[in-house]
Amino acid sequence: VDKLTKVAHFIAGNLKDDSPILARRFVHEIFRLHGVPELIISDRDPIMTLRFWKTLNAALRTKLNFSFAYHPETDGKTKRVNQDLEDMLRMYYMDQQYKWEEYLPLVEFAYNNTYHASLKMTPFEELYERKCRTPVSWDSIEDREVIGPEILTEMEQQVKLIRECLEEVADRQQSYTDLKRVDRKFKLGEKVFLRVKLKKSSITFDKAAKLSP
């Protein structure tokens, strides 16, 4: 996920993939489109912390930073996108019973061409400074029969279904957020308690996981 444009690439992988496989996939799917990034932010997955991956990024002059637990400013957007993708694929698979990895390109297309409130446009528009050209029927609310090869009809149906799943995921998250949101207003000079969640392996405070004013 690009932090500036919010453009995301969804690539199928395997838990058994090692660093060389990950590096080749990076070249095939990311480097060929965007060149060498200045910075990569990742979690502390064992693959990313191996010497091979660090050496590769050093050779490319790409800085490799690792995120911290409970610190969404580092890679919070990526985690949200991953959760959205997981929820959407779960709904999509239950509806279609297809091999989900075969439709990742269409999922990526739909995501990158979905309006983002923070951008006030789609990630595609933010990246390329123009709207993405698509078949007219894909942007039409009305049901319209596509005239052409069968693959176009199938693509249209899948993109519309994926967009419906994206909207459902967004609505569900908004409803969940609204339930947890509490409108609290503080005055200048007021003191508050800050609750800090820590992992067992993290540094703990002597008395409690709270910071007094």
Structure description:
GO terms for molecular function: nucleic acid binding. This is Integrase catalytic domain-containing protein. InterPro entries: Integrase_cat-core, RNaseH-like_sf, RNaseH_sf. Residues 1-131 form the Integrase catalytic domain. The chain has one domain (19-180): Nucleotidyltransferase, domain 5. 9% of the residues are buried. It has 7 helices and 4 strands; from the N terminus they run αβααβααααββ. The strands form 2 sheets. Strands 1-2 form a two-stranded parallel ribbon. It has a two-stranded antiparallel sheet with strand order 3-4. The chain is mostly helical and 213 residues long. Residues 140-144 and 200-213 have low confidence and may be disordered. The protein has helices spanning 19-34, 46-49, 51-60, 72-96, 104-112, 123-128, 150-180; strands at residues 39-42, 63-66, 194-195, 210-211. It is 47% helix and 6% strand.
Number of helices: 7
What is the count of structural domains? Answer: 1
Give the fraction of residues assigned to helices: 40-55%
Average pLDDT over all residues: 75
Structural class: mainly alpha
Q: In CATH terms, what is the architecture? A: 2-Layer Sandwich
**Distance between termini?**
37 Å
**CATH level 3 topology:** Nucleotidyltransferase, domain 5
User: What's the β-strand tally?
Assistant: 4
In quaternary terms, these chains amount to single chain
CATH superfamily: Ribonuclease H-like superfamily/Ribonuclease H
As a percent range, the share of strand residues is 5-15%
- Major β-sheet, in short? 2 strands, parallel
What is the overall shape?
globular
From the alpha-carbon coordinates, what is the Rg to the nearest angstrom?
21 Å
Strand order of the largest sheet: 1-2
Return the CATH class. Answer: Alpha Beta
- SSE string, helices as H and strands as E: HEHHEHHHHEE
Which residues form runs of ≥5 with pLDDT under 50? 140-144, 200-213
